[in-house]
Amino acid sequence: MLAVEVKNIKKTFKTKKDTVEAVKDVSFSVEKGEIFGLLGPNGAGKSTTILMLTTLLRITDGEAKILGSDVATEDKSVREKIGVALQDTGIDNILTGRELFFSTARLWGYSVKDSETRTNELLELVGLTEAADRRVKTYSGGMKRRLDLGLSLVNSPEILFLDEPTTGLDPGSRRVLWDEIKRLRDRGVTVILTTQYLEEADELADRIAIIDEGLVVAEGTSDQLKASIGGDVITFSFSNNSDLENAKKLLTDYKQEGNDLRITVQNGASKIPSFVNKLTENNIEIDAVSASKPTLDDVFLKVTGYRLEGSETSTKSEQPIKES
Ligand SMILES: Nc1ncnc2c1ncn2[C@@H]1O[C@H](COP(=O)(O)OP(=O)(O)OP(=O)(O)O)[C@@H](O)[C@H]1O
Ligand SMILES: [Mg+2]
Q: 192 CB contacts (<8 Å, ≥6 apart)?
């Protein structure tokens, strides 16, 4: 049985003035024990998707199952199997970490004794034992996100949904959370997380779906997605704008990023000399040139037409001339 099975789900928000198609068509499957990453920019529809899959928001159209239970018609059994850490948590900052774990365990129906045991286990698991008796409002951002993660685990869920678990954290705290999430996966928990960070998807997710404007535009393992670029990326840098503009007339299918032009070819390194010759024959001065394996960044650019971080729109040459 699949952990998560999503088929063509949609979400349309209707307000008095207009209609927003937050999720237009999203499908994906997650195997048990996988970390699945939904990677996309602000407004892509990540949170809306998570809210629908966790029964917190009604699906407008399509179907989703969690361990075989339909989120629309079997919401109660879905809720028993899942843990959720939402993007905007309204955590009560006046309580201590220990109090929050304890009261959450009681809400899930654990006895006082079991709630105490569960509290201690989870405080330990997310590394908050020492801070357990401090009020949550004194916690750092990283500690709060670890608290969110811990609280989502109180009912020992088989499937965990984490909406942007590391957004706003420094690289060190992010890595601590990654390690915790991997440890959960290794203990058999299935994790569905959203992220806007390419590095996070690359490092953490066994499989990735890139979501943009409410649509899944690519899906696969990080390696599969990178291989789909079909070659290596050659980057030409120009310090002079007229050189850049002249080079654009000579190259085909490039993507521009600032003063760089990037093209994708097979066996990039071996193709560099012929490109350099062609450009220098036309009196174009190249500042630097390099060939590299594609990154998830390149994949994102290819499937969406823009970059996820510090985006620069892509362009195509109007007068394509074939590579020699
Ligand atoms: N309750 C709502 N009513 C109307 N529009 C909404 C509502 N919730 C979300 N939207 C819109 O739906 C789109 C997707 O929003 P969503 O929050 O799912 O994106 P996201 O990928 O989680 O973005 P972020 O990375 O900023 O969290 C956005 O255009 C958003 O403005
Ligand atoms: Mg969101």
A: 4, 30, 36, 38, 50, 53, 159, 160, 161, 162
